[in-house]
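Running co-folding for nicotinamide-adenine-dinucleotide.
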Amino acid sequence: MNSIGHFVSNEHWPGTTSRVASITNPATGGEIGKVTLASKADVDSIVQTAADALPAWAATPPAKRAMVMFEFRDLLKKHTDELAEMLSKEHGKTIPDAKGEVARGIEVVEFACGIPHLLKGEYSEAVSSNVDSFSVRQPVGVVAGITPFNFPAMVPLWMYPVAIACGNTFVLKPSEKDPSVVMRIAELLVEAGLPAGVFNVVNGDKEAVDALLDHPLVEAVSFVGSTTIGEYIYSRSTANGKRVQALCGAKNHLVVMPDADMEQVTDALIGSAYGSAGERCMAISAAVPVGEETADRLVEALIPRIQALKVAPYTDPSSELGPVISKQSFDRIHSYIDEGLDKGAKLVVDGRNVNLQGYEDGYFIGGCLFDHVTTDMSIYKDEIFGPVLSVVRAGSYDEAVDMINAHEYGNGTAIFTRDGDAARDFWARIRVGMVGVNVPIPVPVAYHSFGGWKRSLFGDHHIHGMEGVRFYTRLKTMTTRWPSGIRTGAEFHFTGGKDV
Ligand code: NAD
């Protein structure tokens, strides 16, 4: 059985506590490992290690830091199959999906390879007579990352390659549900040449998280997870004077205009609503057809496709839909389905009662489709985080836009149309952070930034891309006078460049 501790000073460390949590294979419901849950004292010693490594790493030239990233990128590519297998076993997603996750993470490492260019400052010659001004970006210090179960490799990779390349040291607290892949990736960072103490992993639960949020040596916190926890992380960390970005939950709508190509829409919805069992913060969970006729055509096209989805464990190469992460998620999704039925939504495809021989205790739920969902229902309002798609019929395009803008979440959204005017109006007016036009999951590439609006993000910075560089650095601006011997006399008023 797999036994996971912590990773500190470039070595595995068991920690000092005996508190553990079970790691489960969601396809069987069986325990496959145990993860140690850190105490506050363990967190303190790991943060101290990161703080000790900071001065030398921050002083390492960016080009040298980039060399580690180049090596790291090659190692991630070389080990993709191994990493995908590891994460699928604990998460349950299909192998192609797991490989895709690693590939998207590698893109961020590639972005971080360009750090010498990204950290270039600004220089103004002669802002006044003999006075020049320039700005540089310096590392913030020790950064903590707290990440969710649904992308155990990719979401941490959104954070630490950029943070480390910027000259910070990092303490990652991964999800306790699928922590193994991060531990293997930590070993790859050592192989890539990262000095000891620059990247550390502490495993744990609320106790470890709170210790990070309260630690005076932690300067910044990157969080990705649910909105309830994200809001808590944001308020506790900011109360402690830390910089925070907390990327949170979502309810993503896909608007289907009457002129949309229905085959393209159906393909898009099948992948974006049911891929990864709907456990993506960018999953589409509300389809919004405009007009009754569009809605009828959409539902008719979706039903056979959802019924045909292959529900199977990741070990079956033909699997399209794996299990959800835990018994708790399985029960929560079932209770949402019950609530939807109670409130009068029509369950036109019922994915409950999956029966897979040999996997009877696994957390499998087949694709579910609700029609005639209204905006007052909990299946519309809440993030279900499972393979459940709701069709919410809109009478007009404006009604669709108003519906999305009124929703408390604003992570991603998409419109499918052949009408350029509608598409442009949509992306301009919609109050959502990431928008797709005929693209169902508009996850930005690594050199752009990922982040939602409204209650999908607390804090000012999106993640990776230039927003990531800004989050992990502080701006410093110098004003210098050379030659230094020029006398101006005492100045008692505040002069600007033009006055001198
Ligand atoms: P979660 O909020 O339960 O857990 C996230 C992290 O917070 C984990 O490391 C966990 O150990 C920690 N945590 C949990 N409870 C805590 C508590 N009471 N105090 C302190 N820390 C605590 O989220 P999850 O279930 O692992 O992941 C799913 C959620 O993540 C979904 O809501 C999904 O939308 C969201 N998510 C958002 C994005 C995004 O970019 N917006 C990306 C991926 C996932």
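Result summary
Residues 146-151, 155, 173, 175-176, 205-206, 209, 224-226, 229, 247-250, 281, 383, 385, 411, 452, 456 surround nicotinamide-adenine-dinucleotide (CB under 6 Å).
Residues 232 and 447 are 29 Å apart (CA to CA).
Job closed.
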